[in-house]
Design goal:
Blueprint (H helix, E strand, L loop, with lengths): L10 H4 L12 H9 L5 H9 L7 H12 L7 H8 L3 E4 L6 E4 L1 H24 L40
Helix pairs in contact: 2-3, 2-6, 3-4
Length: about 160
């Protein structure tokens, strides 16, 4: 099994991280969230709820706006996992805080390695992005005309039309 960096799916979020969001989720929290679902806003919300102190609704909206520009609440997946008894909700006022339940630990033990391999395969299947040449700002290009005799233009001769017989 290759080493998957789960945090790499959220580079646009982590590079713009602000103080209002609290602490960044760890690699372990993100990898645990990814066992229960694919990378995205829902898994990010689960990982944020796994932090000490959990996550507020405003923090979920702010993090989801950093992900794709849309500040939408991402609670469906987390609520489904709590309802399925994979996680238990902790009593933290004003925040969503969850911990892994015994049933969830069994699921991780059975499916954790498979989920990590699946993510590694998806990451390796993506074609490498080609680097675009950097455009220099303020650079001007001067075009000058060359003398007609200096230009080497091949002359293509076409056969003369034959008169109709």
């Amino acid at each position: 099994m290759s080493n998957v960096k789960h945090i790499s799916y959220y580079t646009n979020v982590t590079t713009q991280w602000s103080r209002e969001l609290g602490t960044k989720p760890t690699e372990a929290q993100l990898s645990l969230a990814h066992v229960f679902g694919r990378p995205g806003k829902q898994s990010l919300a689960v990982a944020l709820a796994l932090r000490d102190g959990g996550v507020t609704g405003a923090q979920i909206k702010l993090a989801s706006s950093l992900f794709d520009g849309k500040a939408t609440p991402q609670l469906n997946h987390m609520r489904d996992l709590i309802k399925a008894r994979m996680f238990t909700r902790e009593a933290v006022p004003g925040a969503y805080a969850i911990t892994l339940a015994p049933k969830g630990q069994q699921f991780v033990d059975l499916h954790g390695a498979k989920a990590a391999e699946k993510l590694a395969d998806k990451a390796s299947d993506k074609p490498a992005k080609k680097a675009k040449p950097a455009k220099a700002k303020g650079e001007t290009v001067t075009i000058t005309e060359a003398a007609p005799e200096a230009v080497n233009v091949p002359v293509i001769e076409t056969p003369a039309e034959q008169p109709a017989a």
